[in-house]
Amino acid sequence: MQGVSLVYLEAGEEIERIAAAQSGDRQAYLALVRQYARPLYRLAYAMCGDADAADLLARDALICGWGELREIPESLRFFPWILGIMRRIHETPSAVATSPKATEARPIAAIDAHGAALSPTNGGARSAEASPSPAGEGTPGDARLRARTLASFAELRPDQRMTLSLRILEELPYEQLAALLDLSLGVATLRLSQARGHILSRATGLGGDA
Asked: Which of 71, 121, 129, 137 is deepest in the core (most CB within 10 A)?
């Protein structure tokens, strides 16, 4: 899927921007946001299954990231780190409202992540970009297949949707997506297999449709 998959900043440039942002340079943080907010949103959508909830989740992760930026390990790239924050927020949403760091970081909301770096403002466009689905409408049979594929994707567990999205949308190798999710390669491969099996089993039900 050309033009959609995750692209990292050059390592040296990213280190410089992180260091500048840790010193209070909001423009440096904005540069990181613009680079990674769109793939972050797509994965938020995979977790939530709802465009507005995904937008809020990605925003909260980026806001909390500004407040916690001094804690990023030197050996960790920005995207895996901010993805970890987003997964933490998704698992314990009350932690955002009660975290002093999140409260202190609220002024960074002026980064306008939605307009500057997240996906398009139209909810339907956001959903289409975030969800793995066949391209184009084609015949009525193609449309039914697309609808059933989207429905079966929504039926997956959040961890399965995340793993499948990292593989299909972000086009990550198995080893890299396993590392991003803190999984063994075997567990990541199993989740992918389960997710694909579920979607394929739904798709094969189209055989009798006219």
From this structure: 129
